Amino acid sequence: MRNLWRGIALTAIAAILPATSMGPAGARAAAASTNALTFVTSGSVYVLEAGKLTTVGVGQTPEWSPDGSSLLYELNDYVGNTATIYLANTHGSGSKVLVQHTYPWVNPGWSKDGKYVVYTVPTTTVPATLPNAAPVLHPIPLKLMAIKIADHSTTTLGTITFTAGCSTKISALANGLGLAEGTYQGTPSTLIWAQPNLVAVQSSCSGVGLTLLQLKTKKVTTLPTWFGGVLSSDGSTIAASVAGPTPTSLAQVGLLTVATGKTQVLAPKLGAGSLAWSSDGKNLYVATVPVNPQTGTANIYQLSKDGKTKKTLLSVKASGIFHLSTLHAGGNVAFTTAASSSAAAQAPPQTLVENLNLTAVGTKLAAQPLVLGGQGAWRP
């Protein structure tokens, strides 16, 4: 199996990742001259760059720093309610432990300036979640922490209330969707420090709900139906999906202005799931999960920031599209598709990282398969 996906990766990605000599000129010079893709498969994080495949380490949820100089990822123990955060260099090598004993239900993230990694730790003992146990939801206080990469000094940003106790018993389909997205329940995780003031963090182990902390005033507010926030490149706006009033309602896209805390929900009801900003900040890419994972169609839309213009970029028969990532220099969007699957399937659906070239000539955009796996992300 490893040889199969490795062959797909090195062949399909060749047209996108130009070969470049890796001399001693420095990591940033190399990063500036080549594109690199990180992804997860078989429980490990990899980086593919200039035809070279690097094993980063065992873990998931890789995320590049804003300048592409570092790659963080984590190794989770959901049963024991603990996680370890690792940091690798721009090529995916030199992995080292950054922080231990963090909380696994909220993925770590980068500060806007890339100088800190933000993460959460429980302030009380969290009962272990026994495998296959019925969920017992309970609130716990989580400290929002920031560790400075330069000297590993830590700062407590504040404390929020988090709803814990989700069951570890999930279906094979939900497990597959979770691995594609990078979260246990298959719903996007959010932890954003939009410096200097605002922190947005996932409010529950189900993934739904965003808590906002104003660092200057210590004011805490919650957006109970918002999930999966992403920060624009200029740091001015957080976009998130907004669940509807009923389970069958199609989710919309919401915008949060960082400076003022003002929110707005865009009109189109797309069934929004994973989101990504265009490089110029004028548009959002919106991925969807069909109601019927066996026969439904998943889509990628391009939605203008004002919500007035919507364009369908891709429609595929799949149980979902996840983890959008834009390549700023080349007009490419990487994403993960999960194959069509019955909700009662005994095995998780196969997931595939693909790329959509938005500058391709022609009226019909076609996705290019890159690697078997999930959580693909282009290096900035």
Could you walk me through the main structural features you see in this protein, from its secondary elements to its overall organization?
The chain has 380 residues and is mainly beta. The protein has a four-stranded antiparallel beta sheet with strand order 3-2-1-28. A four-stranded antiparallel beta sheet has the order 4-5-6-7, with no helix packed on it. It has a four-stranded antiparallel beta sheet with strand order 8-9-10-11, with no helix packed on it. 7% of the residues lie in helices and 47% in strands. The protein contains three helices and 28 strands. The protein has one domain (2-378): TolB, C-terminal domain (Neuraminidase, 6 Propeller), CATH 2.120.10.30. The relative contact order is 0.13. It has helices at 2-12, 27-33, 172-181; strands at residues 36-41, 44-49, 52-58, 60-64, 70-77, 82-89, 96-102, 109-110, 116-122, 138-148, 154-164, 191-194, 198-202, 210-214, 220-223, 226-231, 237-242, 252-257, 263-265, 272-277, 283-288, 297-304, 310-317, 320-327, 332-338, 351-357, 367-372, 374-378.
Quick take:
With 380 residues, this protein is mainly beta.
Radius of gyration, in angstroms, nearest whole number = 19 Å
Overall pLDDT score: 87
**Strand residue percentage:** over 45%
Number of helices: 3
Query: Which architecture would the CATH scheme give at its second level?
Result: 6 Propeller
Across the major sheet, the strand order is 3-2-1-28
Q: What does the secondary structure layout of this molecule look like, with pairings?
A:
Elements: H1 2-12, H2 27-33, E1 36-41, E2 44-49, E3 52-58, E4 60-64, E5 70-77, E6 82-89, E7 96-102, E8 109-110, E9 116-122, E10 138-148, E11 154-164, H3 172-181, E12 191-194, E13 198-202, E14 210-214, E15 220-223, E16 226-231, E17 237-242, E18 252-257, E19 263-265, E20 272-277, E21 283-288, E22 297-304, E23 310-317, E24 320-327, E25 332-338, E26 351-357, E27 367-372, E28 374-378
Antiparallel strand pairs: 1-2, 1-28, 2-3, 4-5, 5-6, 6-7, 8-9, 9-10, 10-11, 12-13, 13-14, 14-15, 16-17, 17-18, 18-19, 20-21, 21-22, 22-23, 24-25, 25-26, 26-27
